[in-house]
Amino acid sequence: MVGKGKAFTKNLLGVDVYYELYPNKDATNKPVMVLIHGFLSSSFSYRRLFPLLKKDYTVLTVDLPPFGKSGKQTTFVYSYENMAKLVLQLLQSLSFHRAIVVGHSMGGQIALNMSKLKPDIVEKCILLCSSGYQKRMSSSLIVSSRIPFFHMWVKYWLGRKGILGNLYNVVYDRSLVDDEMVSGYLQPFTNDDIFRALTRMIRDREGDLGAEELKGIETPNLLIWGEEDRVVPLPIGVRLSNDLPNSKLITYKKTGHLLPEEKPDYVTENILEFAQS
């Protein structure tokens, strides 16, 4: 039986973590399905996906700090490795010892870091237009981030295209952008504390996992990509697929970066087939 979701906040590693749990009593012998969102997003980005996945799995959605409803403390270390440790600690606190991790965009790097840290817990990964091969921020930007009120420049830079411009950039079919989507994705820009935390993230974020590190990850990976992705272009997916030794790449035509919103039915079908194989 599929249960209704419940929202919780738990303090882990010194930061408040917001998550939603959708239990499925018929899936107690299956790993939990963990959904991790991308940069400047939240669990909202999975709103069309988790209602489909929870029919077959217990589903856990997480708002990574400082995004969504999670804490925005400037004392937290916003590295990908630390975020991965945070999600792993959340799983441990909930007594989940097996997981299938779905990561969209930046969330894909968190999923890969989780696989690297705890391959005994992460049984499989699904990378949806995952970020890859990004370097650490430049030293000049890291130094500049210590200037007082630098967070206001971060706010300006991230919001310069406006919410519509940002959404049009991540979807192929612009007709998908409606009032509900605008409201949901506008949320990160409504609290200035997030920009203070993102200023800290400029200093903390290491580069993405390199080729040699990726080649050491034996966890089975399914990569799903939109062929018209303008944020993380398909060649990144091809390169990731080549570097990850146990991986498969699927691409969708006429699809952009926001796969969970654009093709939820197809993505769910691919995820379930891969998860149950």
UniProtKB/TrEMBL annotation:
Taxonomy, superkingdom:
Bacteria
Q: Which residues form the AB hydrolase-1 domain?
A: 31-130
Q: Which Gene Ontology terms cover its molecular function?
A: hydrolase activity
Q: Does the keyword Hydrolase apply?
A: yes
Which SUPFAM superfamilies does the protein's record reference? alpha/beta-Hydrolases (SSF53474)
Keywords, A to Z, come to: Hydrolase
> Keyword Secreted, does the record have it?
no
Q: Which Gene3D superfamilies match?
A: alpha/beta hydrolase
Q: What is the protein name for this chain?
A: Alpha/beta hydrolase
What organism is this sequence from?
Answer: Sutcliffiella cohnii
